[in-house]
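Batch job 17 of 40 flagged for manual review because the log was empty.
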Amino acid sequence: MSVFTDTRLIRLPADELAELMRWGRLAVFAGTLLLAWITLEPFADLTNTDVLELATGRDGATYLAYGLLAAAGTAIVLLTQPRLLASLLHPLWILLGAWLCVTVVTSADPNLSMKRLVLFFLLALLCATLFLMPRGRKQMALLLVVAAGVVTALSLVGVALMPELSIHQATDVGEPQLAGDWRGVFAHKNTTGAIFAMIIFMMIFAIRAGHGLAAGPVLAASVLIVAMSGAKSSTMLFVGAMLIAILVQRIRSGLVVGAIAFAPLVVLSVLGPGSVVSDAIASVVQKLPFDATFTGRADIWELALEKIAERPLTGWGYQAYWALESTRFGQEDTTQWAGHAAHAHNGYIDAALNMGLPGLALTLVVFVIMPLRNYLVARRGGADPALLLMLLQIWLFGVYLSVMESFMYLRFHPTWITFLFAVFGLHYLARRPHVAP
């Protein structure tokens, strides 16, 4: 039975209710992606000093919008597929949630950590229902094309008609050195590169699902935007994730699949953060043909690792450290990137920094190891290869990108939401594979 079409647990009393349910599914799926990707405040004016405070989470309208979508999505799934939603009551998911609560209690700023944890649970609930909204692979592919088409069109229109709001400028108050890089509807070119890389995976799936005429132009435009964004990490890791996923799909041995899938993660971690803890690794990195500081990330990693050592068990509190003004690094020198860093630019380091080493371990198990296991189970169960490949590529890309960027647990970050869509999708397909028609 498809994860998309199991409606045995509900008997609709009227055609009107069935129609309402149908439109509700479409609205939750498309609305969530559009809200995540476009936000309620697209085309941020980076010449305004207020953009430096965008991460404070003051936008009540955004929280309300996500809350309504989460309520609608949860109601639909509880009425139609409650057993699949209940499958998330896995011991490891429960343990992760429990540990997050512990890090709120032990946080250096409990009030802040509590607010952000509530938002995480809200977002996780919404993302847990997202994959279950479409009524089949073709409908999912079509909805992905529509959502991706809207954000792509808006970004291109912005570049053409409002370059000052969609292309980084030398007058930007934060990072004027990014002048000329496309950012589209997003506030930073790194987010642009990551999201459009994920959209490329989605459009490949949509073409394979029979929507080539509509998905083709979106795919081509997404490739252009990724290239023009100047997001080097996303460009490199996008290609790597695509090739690794295709290779993994052809290998039967689970052990070999794991070795191949995680090898880039290990290499990136050793060459990246490893270079700030080992002089031997640093000397090797300096001989390689790229910036040995990883565009200033090395300074941030060094500080973060020192702070992890100060509170290794519980960390500084869920999503708390970078909001603690008294502990911010280099705040007296805002001419350097590290002087106004909002995160460690490494999701795994941030997990340890905010949630301690146990939090890092749970993050690796839940978001890195379990999804690959779910992929292997879903593949053995006969899940649709095109759908499974798309989810695998998005997940792998997110796992690799987390070495260079922080988006895990970062509230309503568009990359985090898209990554969770893939994680939950793999979870459901492992329990009820969807066989392509």
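Reviewer: the log was empty due to a logging misconfiguration, but the result itself is present. Residues 319 and 354 are 6 Å apart (CA to CA). Unflagging and moving on to job 18.
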